[in-house]
Amino acid sequence: MDFINKNIMISGGSSGIGLALAKELAALGANITILARRKELLESALSEIRESALSTDQQFKWFSADVSNFNSLKRVLSADNTAYDILINSAGIAYPGKFVDMDPTIFKNVIDINYLGTVYLTKLILPKMIEKNSGYIVNISSLAALIGIYGYTAYAPSKYAVRGFSRCLRSEVKPHGIDVSVVLPPDTDTPQLAFEHSIIPEITKKINQSGSVMSAEKVAHVIIEGIKKKRFTIVPGFEGNLLYALAPIFGRYFYRYAVNLAKEDV
């Protein structure tokens, strides 16, 4: 796939994996639109993206919007007449914690942003893809959508939902010339991960300590290579691919390990 002059929308494009994707795709000649909530971050991110551009003919813009609010999102994008070639749903949050200690609003917020935010933006961008009978939708899920991990009762289900949505959507849009990919990244060195580590339960920390952390740039590069090859499931990193291949085995191991740690904590 050639990205030159392709119009690409990236939610969560002001930081982390979304920003890394925007910069690499700009370097490959794409026109980039990023969408996130905070205007100051969007402005600084767009400056970085412009610096990565392949040519001066490329176009770059941003929208400040909350993907979890469909009516607001629709209103913000109503003036945008761009027919996007690629949509990357990268906006997301994680909030680890013990289920009994977490406020119910946390579960709603995580589902609203991670899952419904993906659904809402896709709902708004997809019709023009169908009109031109081509397009590509990339949804960022997580390795947490493969196995249940202690401390992620809010985050993991939202990413399971993104994975399920992607599997269902691909069969509906393929007849319109539109491809879908779902990405299962491992822990990635982003501001979001730094926040997670500040509140993560001790048991979850012990479970995660054996795994490595990938850079956002490396994850972005693997995603782009996966898009080029039109892979449905894109799993960055050797450890991630091993987990993907052996999910039932690792799932049982992590369950037993967490239970033993929890018993010690009681």
Structural domain tally: 1
Rounded mean pLDDT score: 94
Low-confidence stretches: none
What is the CATH C level class, in words? Alpha Beta
Q: Proportion of β residues?
A: 5-15%
Shape: globular
Topology-level CATH name: Rossmann fold
Major sheet details:
7 strands, parallel
Alpha carbon gap, first and last residue = 54 Å
Number of strands: 9
Q: How much helix is in the residues? A: 40-55%
Number of helices: 10
Walkthrough of the structure:
- With 266 residues, the protein is of the alpha/beta class.
- It has a single domain, classed as 3-Layer(aba) Sandwich (Rossmann fold).
- It is built from ten helices and nine strands.
- The strands form two sheets. A seven-stranded parallel β-sheet has the order 3-2-1-4-5-6-9, sandwiched between helices. Strands 7-8 form a two-stranded parallel ribbon.
- Strand 5, helix 5 and strand 6 form a beta-alpha-beta unit.
- Helix 1 crosses helix 8 and helix 4 runs parallel beside helix 5.
- The longest helix is centred in the middle third of the chain and has 29 residues.
- It is globular and about 60 Å long.
- The N and C termini lie far apart (54 Å).
- The mean pLDDT is 94.
